[in-house]
Amino acid sequence: MFEKNYLKQLYEIDKKLIEFKKERIKLLTYIKFKDIQKQGRFSLITSKNDLRKIDINLYKKSVTPKQFQDSIGVSVKMAEKYLSSEQIKDVVYYVSTNKLVVVKS
């Protein structure tokens, strides 16, 4: 199945993956532009994932130095311990990712 030169094979596969990813991006861009959701037995499924993130500079300004020191590596849960819900709204931001998958029905 594999030749003896495993690293060369891996390198070649990685090059092909990069090309496939570029081609996939082009196709997805076209599909979005044309607003294609279904073609024959194939459908485009979109799932969205939102992640909450902390704006560290705003957080640091909102808490005491001791609180900031105690919460290095700040999770949103940790920030919620020290800040009001209004302050949380100011320092937390969301990162959205969309995953597009084509399924055959």
Structure description:
The protein contains five helices and three strands. Helix 2 (56-62) runs antiparallel to helix 5. It has one domain (6-104). Helix content is 53%, strand content 27%. The model has no long low-confidence stretch (mean pLDDT 87). It starts with 5 loop residues before the first helix and ends with a strand. The protein has 105 residues and is of the alpha+beta class.
Q: Give the N-to-C terminal Cα separation.
A: 33 Å
Which band does the percent of strand residues land in? 25-35%
Report helical residue fraction: 40-55%
- Biggest sheet, strands in spatial order? 1-2-3
Output the keywords.
alpha+beta, 3-stranded antiparallel sheet, 105 residues, 53% helix, flat, 27% strand, 3 strands
Quick structural overview:
With 105 residues, this protein is α+β, with helices and mostly antiparallel strands. The chain has helices at residues 6-34, 56-62, 65-70, 76-82, 85-91, and strands at residues 38-39, 42-54, 92-104.
List the SSEs and their pairings.
Elements: H1 6-34, E1 38-39, E2 42-54, H2 56-62, H3 65-70, H4 76-82, H5 85-91, E3 92-104
Antiparallel strand pairs: 1-2, 2-3
Helix pairs in contact: 2-5
